[in-house]
## 1
Amino acid sequence: MAHPAHYREAHPMVFVLTHWINLIAMVSLAFSGFYIHYPFFAGFMGVARGMHFFFMFVLIINLTFRIIAAFFVKSAVSLGSREVDTDIKNWLPQKANRHQFLAWIKYYLFMKKDHPLGAKYGVLQKIAYIATVPLTFVMAYTGFSIWGPTMDWSFFSAGAGWVGGYMYMRVIHYFLMWVFIVFTAIHAYLANVEGFAPSGLIFAWKESEGLHFDKEGNPAGGKAH
Amino acid sequence: MAHGNHDALYSQLAARGVTRRDFLKFCGSIATLMGLAETAIPQIAAAVEAAALTPRAPALWINGGACTGCTESMAQGMTPDVATVVLDLLSLNYFETVMMAQGGPEMIPGYQEGVVEAKPELTAEGAIKTMLEEGGYILIFEGTVMTGFGGNALRIAGKSQTEELPEICKNAAAIVAVGSCAVDGGWVAARPNPAEGKGIQQFCKDEGIATPVINLPTCPVNPEWVVAMVIDVLLLGQLESGAILDKLDDFGRPSLIFGQTIHDNCPRRGHFENGEFVYEFGSAEEAKGYCLYAVGCKGPQTFTNCPIVRWNDGASWCVESGAPCIGCGNANPLSPGGNWVDVGAPFLNRMPDLPIAGTTFQPSTIGAAVGAVAAGALLVHGIGMKVAGRMDGGAPYEDVRAHDRKKGGGK
Amino acid sequence: MARVVVDPLTRIEGHLRVEVEIGADSKVSDAWVSGTLYRGMETVLKGRRPQDAFYVSQRICGVCPISHGHASTMSAEDTYDLTIPNGARLVRNIIECAQYLHSHVLWFYTLAALDYVDPLKALSADIAATYDLALAVAGKYAPAGFDVRVTDFGAVQKRVGEFINAGLNNNRLSIFTNGWLGHPAYPSEMPAELHLIAVAHYLEALQVQAEASQIIGIMGGKFPHFMTSVNGGTTFVPTEEKLDDVLYRLMKVVDFVNNVMIPDTLAIAPYYAKDYPNEGIVSSAAYGAGCKNYLAWGVFNDPSFELTKRYLPGGVIKGLDLAAGVIPGLEDPDPSKVMEYVSRSWYDSADGLNPSDGETSAKYVDYDVNGKYSWGKAVRYDDLPMEVGPLSRMLVAYLRDTEMQWPDGVRTPKQLIDLTLGALGSELGLTGPVPLAALQSLLGRVAARNLETAFVADLSVASVLELVGYVKEGDVKWFEPHSVSDGKGVGMWEAPRGSVAHWMTVEGGKLSNYQVVAPTTWDIAPRDKEGADAVRGPIEESLIGAPVMDPERPMEVVRIVRSFDP
Ligand code: HEM
Ligand code: HEM
Ligand code: HEM
Ligand code: SF4
C-alpha cells in the first residue's frame, strides 16, 4: 500500500475543468473523426462534421487557455503535498525528476521492485503530458490543412505539398488520431492502475488521504499541511 | 476591328455550322474557365477573332509515353471543336496522332548509308526541325517523359525521345503539360515506376531548362481547359506579360481551374452533409443520387472543376454516372509518388494502400493494429500489475532515488 | 534493294516503327515492325487490388479504353466466378457499341482518309458538280437520301483553300505540314469533287465521333477513360431521361454511318479496287492480305455470356485462302493456346509462356532487325501469328451466320458483306459481285471495318431499345455484390481494333500477376524466334509483296499498316 495523498492543490478547479473539457473534446473529435473517416451508419455526416469543427476549436482554445493558466495558477509542487508553486514549474520537469527516467522504465517493466519517487508526476507521465501539447498542435495543423476554409492558406498548403498532397495529409491526421487514442489509453491506464484516487481528484475534485511528500518529492511522513 | 473582318470570321464559322450565338457561348465558357466576368466576353471575342484572322500561332504537340487519350480527349471538345483548334487557332506542325506526314530522315532510301541527304520536307520529323529553328512555339506535351533504359523506353525516329526533348523544350515559349502523365508521370510513374517515367516539369528542372510549364492534370485532360489555356497564353498575350504565371498555383496549375475541390462543387454534396451514402453500386441509394463518399470518392481531396465543366461537351461526368471520383487530377509535378494511382488506389477505399515491407496496408489496418497492440500490452501489463500486487496503490516507494544513493546522498 | 524506315508512323495510337526492304521489282521483300514504347502496365498493377485494375489497365490505350476496361472486369469476374446482371450486360454492350462507332468513324475519316483523299485536289472541285455527285452517291447508297444533310461544300472548299494558301508560305500548314499532298498514289481518275466531299465529311466526322463518345460520357462518366463498368456490373443506373439522351445522340451517329460513311466507302472504293498501269497504281484489293490466320474472342455479350454466341462471335480461322478456295473449319477460341515469345523483343523473360503464367521483365538492347527490335512481344495462337480486328470478326461472323441468333432489326455481317460486294461489282462494271476473296486484302480490311460500323450501328439501336424496355419494367439489377476471392481468371473481349484479353492472378486479395494481350500486340507482333525460319508478325507479313511506287514516300506501306488501326 503506497497511495500518495491526493489533495485539491494538485489539480485546482480550473484544471479539473480544462481536463473535463479536454476529455469531452477528445472523445467527440475521435468519434466524429472515425465517422468522417468512414460513415459506418447513415444520416450523421453533417452532425459529425459540425461536431468535429466545433470541438477542434474547443480543444485548441482549451489547450491554449490551459497553457496560459499554467503561468498564473499555483498548483501543488508534488503529490501528497499542499505546498504550491506556479503550475508551469510543476508541469515541466522538476528537479526531483532528475535521473529517474530509467527507474520508471524499470519499475513498469517489473525490473524494479520499489516505486520510484517522482515530483508532481513521474518522469514518463510528465513526458506524456508535455507531449500532448505539440501533438495537439500538429493535429490542429494537419486538421486545418484539410479544412476547406483554411486549406489554401499558404501556411497550410505548403505542408500539404510537402507531404505529397492532401490525401497524405488526411492519412497523417488519421494516424495521429490513433496516436491520441493510444496515448489516452495508456494515460488512463497508468493514472488508474494503482487505484482510482487520482481520477476522483481530477474528475470529481475529491480529496483522498495517503502518503505525504515534501517539496523535493521525497517521502515526508505524516500529513501534509 | 473592321467590320469586314467580323464578317470574314463569321462566314468562316458559318461554314462549320457555328452561329454567332454558339461563338459567343464559346467565349462565355472561356471567360468562366479563366475566371473572368461576363463583361470580358467582348474582349475575348475580339481576341479570338483577331487570332482566327492572323497567322496561326506555331505549336508542337509531342507525345511522350502516352496512351493517346489526351489527344482523343481533345477531339471530344466541341466549343470550339478540334478543327478550330487545329486549323484556326494553332498551327500544330507536329501532332503525331492526326498529322498528315509521317517518318523521319531514315525514310529516305540511302540516308542511313550516308549517300543521300535527309529530306525534312517529306517527313513528320522534319516539321520539328523547322520549328526548332524558328523557336517561340507553344509546346503541348502529352504523356510521360520516359527515362528508363537510357531513354529507350520510348524511341522515336530511331533514337530515344529524351535525346531531342531538351532542345524542343528549350526553344519553346511555353510548355503546356496536358494530362496527369505529362504533369507528374501519371500511372506510368506509379510504384515501382518500371520505365522511370516523370513529368515534363521535373524533366525540365533536371535538364536546367527554364521554359515556363503550365500543368493541366486529370487523366485524360479535359479539352476545355486546354483551349482556355491556349487562348489565355496566346490570345490575351499573357505569356509575354508574365501574367499567366501569376495565375498558377504551387503545382503550376491555373488556380481558376484547379482551385476548388470536386467535393466543393458536387451536386451530391447535399447528400454528403445529410449522411446519405451509396454503400453499394447500383443500389436504391444510387438511384436517389446519394453521395459516393463511402465507396471511396476522392472528390474531397481532388482539385478540379469537373462538376462545373463536366466531360464530353458537358454530357455528364464521373460522379453523375454513379462512379466515385478516382482523383485522376491529383498530381504533384515535383514529388515522386504523388501520382494519382499511388495516391488514390485502392480507388474504392477512402484511403490509399501504404507500402510497407514489400506489401501494402490500409491506414485503418495499421491504425487498428497499433491500437490493438497497445490495448494488448496494457492488458498484459495490467495482469502483471495485479500479480505483482501493485493494483492497489502500487509498490512501496523507494526511500531514496537510486542516483542520489550512488552519489552517497540519502538516508 | 532499298531500306525504308517509317518512324514515327503517325495517325495511329501510340508509337510505331516500320522498316521495309524494297526489292528490285519495287515490291516489299521483307518487313520489321517495332513497337517503340514500354510503360510497364503489368508491373505497375502487381500488388494492387483486382478492383483497381479496371481503372488503371484501361489506360493502356486512350483510343480503346472501354474494351480494356471490360476485359479487365471480366477477368476479375472470371476469377470470382461471378455473372453480372442482365442490366449491366446491356449497359456495357451499349457503351462498347458507342466506342466502336466513335473509333471506326474517327479511324476512317481522321486517321486513314488522308491516305486515300487529297485535300489539295479538293481545291479544284467544281461546286455544282460536287452537289451533283453527292446527290448521285446518296441516291444510290444512302437509305435516307441526300436531303437529310446539306453540307456547304463551297464554304468548306473556301476554308480549306484559305487555310492552305495562308499556311503554305509561312510554315503554318498545321497538321498538313510535310504531308504528301499531291502524291501520285491518289488515282487521277478519282474526281476532285469526290475529294471535296470526303474533305467536307472529314470535318463533319469530327463532330460525329464526338457525339458517339458523348454516349459513353452519359453512361460511362467520361471518354476517353470511363468509370462505370466496375467488377460486378455497372455503377450507372439508367433513367428514362438519360436513355432518351443516349438515343437522341445515337440516332445522329447512326444516321451519319448509314447515310454518309457507308456511301463514301462505296463511292471511293472503286477507285482503289482498280489497277491503273499508266500511273503505276496496283489495285488495293490485290495485296496486303497478310498471315491469313484470323482470331476473334468475340464481343457484345448475349444473355448466355458465351464467347461463340456473342453478337460478334468468337472464332479462330487458320490459313483461310478464299482466292484458292481454302476454307478451313472454324475453331472455338481457347485462351490457353496463347503463347508469348520474346527472343526478338526487349525482354529477358522466359519464352513461350501462356499469359496466365506470363512474365514481364524488360531489358533493352540495341535495335537490330536481325536480333531484338521491338517492345512488343510476339504473341501467337497455337504457334501461329493471328490477325485480329474487324476483318477477323466479320469473317468469323460470316462463317457463323446460320448458327447465330441475331437481335431483331440488325443487318447481319453476311448481309452487309454480300450487299457491298454486289454494289462494288456493279460499280466496277463486273457481271456479278466482287468475289469474297477480295476481303483478304488492304481494301478488304478497310471495307470490313466500315461494314462492321454499320452492323454496330444497328446493334446499338437494338440494345438501347431493349434496355429502355427493361428499365420500364422496373426492378432491374445493375450490380452483383461480391467479395474478392483468390484465383486466376481471364477476360476476353474485342476492342474496335481487335482481340483483347486480360489475365489476372489474385493472391491474398491482391494481384500477384497481371498480363495483357492487347489488339495491337497481336498485329504488330515481331518475329517469334531467331534465324531464318522465324515467322513474321501479321503486319510484317501483310507488307510482303506490296508495291511501292515512290520509296521516298512509301504510301502503300503506310496504308497497309494503318489498315490494321494499330
Ligand atoms: C486539433 C484540431 C483538429 C482539427 C483542426 C481537425 C480538423 C479536421 C478536419 C478539417 C477534418 C476533415 C473533415 C472533413 O473534411 O469533413 C478532420 C477529419 C478527421 N479528424 Fe480531425 N481535427 C482535429 C483534431 C482531431 C482529433 C483530436 C482527432 C482524433 C483524436 C481527429 C480525428 C479525425 C479523423 C479520424 C478524421 C477523418 C480523416 C479522414 O478519414 O479523412 N481530429 N479533422
Ligand atoms: C479516458 C479518459 C481519461 C482519464 C480517465 C484521465 C484521467 C486522468 C487522471 C486521473 C489524471 C490525474 C493524474 C494524476 O493526478 O496523477 C489526469 C491528468 C491529466 N490528463 Fe487525463 N484522463 C483522460 C483523458 C485525457 C485526455 C484525452 C487528455 C489529453 C489528450 C488528458 C490529459 C491530461 C493531462 C494533460 C493531465 C494533467 C492534468 C493537468 O495538468 O491538467 N487526459 N487524467
Ligand atoms: C426534441 C426536440 C426537437 C427536435 C427533435 C427538433 C428537430 C428539429 C428539426 C429536425 C429541425 C429542422 C432542421 C433542419 O433540417 O433545418 C428543427 C428546426 C428548428 N427547431 Fe427544432 N427540434 C426540437 C426542439 C426544438 C426546440 C425546443 C426549439 C426552440 C426552443 C426548436 C427550435 C427550432 C428552430 C428555431 C428551428 C428552425 C426552423 C426553421 O427552419 O426556420 N426546436 N428542429
Ligand atoms: S460524391 Fe464525392 S465529391 Fe460528391 S459529395 Fe460525395 S464525396 Fe463529395
## 2
Amino acid sequence: MIREDCRTVTLLLLDHVYRDLEEVWTHRVERHLADCAECRERHARLRETLELVDRATVEPEERISEQFAATVLAILQRRRADESRPWLRAAMAACLVLGLLAPTLRVPSLPKATAPNPPPAVVELQLVAKELNDPLIVELAWQTAQLSARVQSVGFRTSRPVS
Amino acid sequence: MENPELELELIRRAQQGDLRAYGALVKRYEERMFYTAYRILHQREDAEDCLQETFLRVWDRLRELSDVRAFQLWVYRILSNQALDILRRRERQREGLESYGSEVLHLARVSSPASPRELLRRSREVERIERAIEELPPRQKLVFVLRHFQGLKLTEIAEVLNSPLGTVKATLHNALQKLQGSLIGSGEVDERARR
Ligand SMILES: [Zn+2]
C-alpha cells in the first residue's frame, strides 16, 4: 500500500517540478524525496519526461505569416464598411431601378454621352464601389454613372439650339 | 509583458472601436498565440485559421470584457475553444477513417503534421516525442501546452478553461502519465500512486 505521505507528495510533484509550490511545501516535498526512494523514482521519471519534451521542442520551425495582423484588420475594416453604410445598397438599388426605368423616360435614345465630369455623388459612389469591391455594388455604381451621363447629355442637348 | 500600461490603453481604445489600436494588440499577441495554436494543432494552416477566427471573435466580444487586465487569459480562452473545436472535428474525421483500416488511419495521423522539409530536418527521436504530444487527448494536450509551453499557472488555466482547479490538475497529471508512458515506458509506481 502507498503511504499517506507518498500520496500527498505524488500529488504535489507536478507543482514542484513546475515550481508552483510555496516555500513551505517545497521543503516538505524535498524532505520526503530525500527519505523515500519510490517518490524519488517518480520525481526522476517526471523530470526525465519533461526534459525529453523540452529537448524535442525547442521552438517550432513554423512562423506566423507576416501579413497575419493586416489580414485580420482588412477583414474587420471591410465588415465595418459594410455595416456603416447600410443605406448604400438601398441607394444603389434605387439607382438601378432608375437606370432600368430610364428607357421609358425617353432618355436612352440619346447618343453616348460625352458628359463633362460626373456629379460628386456619382464619383463618391464609384470610389466606394471600388473600395468595397463588391460585384453588385460595382455594377450598381456603373449603372448609376451611365444614367448620370445620359441625364447630363440630355441637359446639354436641350440647352443647345436644334440644328 | 513589456509596457503593460500601453497595452491596457490599447485594449481600452480597441473596446471603443479603434481598429488601429486593435491591430497593434493583434501584433503584440499573434506570435505567442500562434505558437500555442501550433503546439496544439501541429499544422500551420490550421493554427493560422484558428488564430484568425480567434482574433475576429475577440474583436466582436471585446466590449464584454469588463476587466481589461484579464485580456490575455480571455484571448487564451477563446483560442482554446477554437483549437478544441478543430481537434474534435479532426477526431470525428479520424473516426470516420478508422473504418477504412489502420493503414489509412496511420497516414492520417502521421503525414498531416509536418511539411516534407520539416520532416527531413527532424530526427526520429524528435518525431517520436512530438507524436507522443500530438496523440494526447484534446483537453490533456491543451492543458499541457498551456502549462508547459506557455507557462500559465494552473489557476490561470482553470480560469481559461472555466474549470475547477482540481480538474485541471488531474488533467495535467493524466497528460503527463500518458506522455511518460509513451516516452519512457509506464511506471507501475505511478499507477499505484494514482488511487
Ligand atoms: Zn514517498
